[in-house]
Amino acid sequence: AKAPVRVLVTGAVGQIGYALVPMIARGAMLGPDQPVIIHMLDIEPAAEALNGVKMELIDAAFPLLKGVVATTDIVEACNGVNIAVMVGGFPRKEGMERKDVMSRNVSIYKAQASALEQYAAQDCKVLVVANPANTNALVLKEFAPSIPEKNITCLTRLDHNRALGQISERLNVHVSDVKNVIIWGNHSSTQYPDVNHATVSTSAGQKSVKELVGDDKWLKTEFITTIQQRGATIIKARKLSSALSAASSACDHIRDWVIGTPKGTWVSMGVSSDGSYGIPPGLMYSFPVTCEKGEWSIVQGLKIDEFSREKMDATAKELMEEKSLAYSCLN
Ligand code: NAI
């Protein structure tokens, strides 16, 4: 039997955490034959609820679940973890300025960077979900210099999956037949969902999404804003932000990273830019990536038209601004 993998979920009591831990325990993240030990971290006021989630995990009698660590101590939480899914954070409350939210979160991510660096397993893979996701991941990367840069990522897979979903609805095809959409940039309303290279598997072979949709105006306007605004639309409908879709997408992100992407398929991940496509090096930016043997690489050589270039640069610019705001909060 395989040795168990230790998976940390921070903010485990929250909405996403509560949806995510049973998915991990069922094998949705690491596969149906990989035992797991789940580490859950939350803050002191949530300690009792955290213990409640632990009791439920025990009650569900998951065959793959070999242990549960539920703690409010960051050191205990990070100890020996192979995968860290960082969902914990401070939500934006009414009347709060962007800078206040940023300031609360970057100080959390600065502190947690040090704990991961010191106590997690050497090869630990990190996924930041909590917003501002790209900038929290950037802070984590800068304050955990001994963690390889390649091991720190942020979640834009939800946006990617939303784009697949909208195309599948529009074309009335199954979502698993649509592939190779791209989310460029920030997990925010400036993100650029790009379908220029996306395809659909049909009985007559692979067809381009652009061709099948046949309505360039829709793809350049409504489609893009629907994806950019989807988070807000869900909040309006549920009075709560996306949780099951975020949790499921976090599983997809880690699964593809660890197990690999299918041949001919790429996915979107927020990763540290190496300068590809003219994006400033070091910025945490969402790119199309393929994964093999536990490593991602940015898909190279895609043709970028003028429309795309402008949108890719606009979201990069926002990330530069977030970066300087984050640093001004830390100083
Ligand atoms: P939530 O407010 O229900 O849960 C957050 C949890 O984090 C709470 O239990 C809270 O006690 C905990 N927490 C706060 N500070 C902490 C700390 N220092 N250490 C550990 N835990 C801490 O929020 P929800 O809905 O679960 O969302 C979590 C985050 O994910 C939010 O920042 C949200 O904006 C973000 N998000 C990101 C998405 C993405 O695609 N990247 C999609 C949806 C949400």
Structure description:
By secondary structure, the protein is of the alpha/beta class. It has helices at 15-25, 47-59, 74-78, 98-119, 133-142, 157-171, 209-213, 216-220, 222-238, 244-259, 306-330, and strands spanning 5-10, 36-41, 65-71, 83-86, 125-128, 152-154, 178-179, 182-184, 192-194, 199-202, 205-208, 267-272, 284-292, 295-298. The strands form 4 sheets. Strands 3-2-1-4-5-6 form a 6-stranded parallel β-sheet. It has a 3-stranded antiparallel β-sheet with strand order 7-10-11. The chain has a 3-stranded antiparallel β-sheet with strand order 12-13-14. Strand 8 (182-184) and strand 9 (192-194) form a beta hairpin. The longest helix is centred in the last third of the chain and has 25 residues, at 306-330. The mean pLDDT is 97. 1,4-dihydronicotinamide adenine dinucleotide (NAI) binds at residues 10-11, 13-17, 41-43, 46, 87-91, 108, 129-131, 133, 155, 158, 187, 241-243, 246.
Question: How would you summarize what this structure contains?
Answer:
This protein is an alpha/beta fold and 331 residues long. It has helices at 15-25, 47-59, 74-78, 98-119, 133-142, 157-171, 209-213, 216-220, 222-238, 244-259, 306-330; strands at residues 5-10, 36-41, 65-71, 83-86, 125-128, 152-154, 178-179, 182-184, 192-194, 199-202, 205-208, 267-272, 284-292, 295-298.
> Strands of the largest sheet, in order across it?
3-2-1-4-5-6
Count of β-strands: 14
Low-pLDDT segments: none
Sheet/helix structural class: alpha/beta
Please write out the topology.
Layout lengths: L4 E6 L4 H11 L10 E6 L5 H13 L5 E7 L2 H5 L4 E4 L11 H22 L5 E4 L4 H10 L9 E3 L2 H15 L6 E2 L2 E3 L7 E3 L4 E4 L2 E4 H5 L2 H5 L1 H17 L5 H16 L7 E6 L11 E9 L2 E4 L7 H25 L1
Parallel strand pairs: 1-2, 1-4, 2-3, 4-5, 5-6
Antiparallel strand pairs: 7-10, 8-9, 10-11, 12-13, 13-14
Helix pairs in contact: 1-10, 4-5, 4-11, 5-11, 6-9
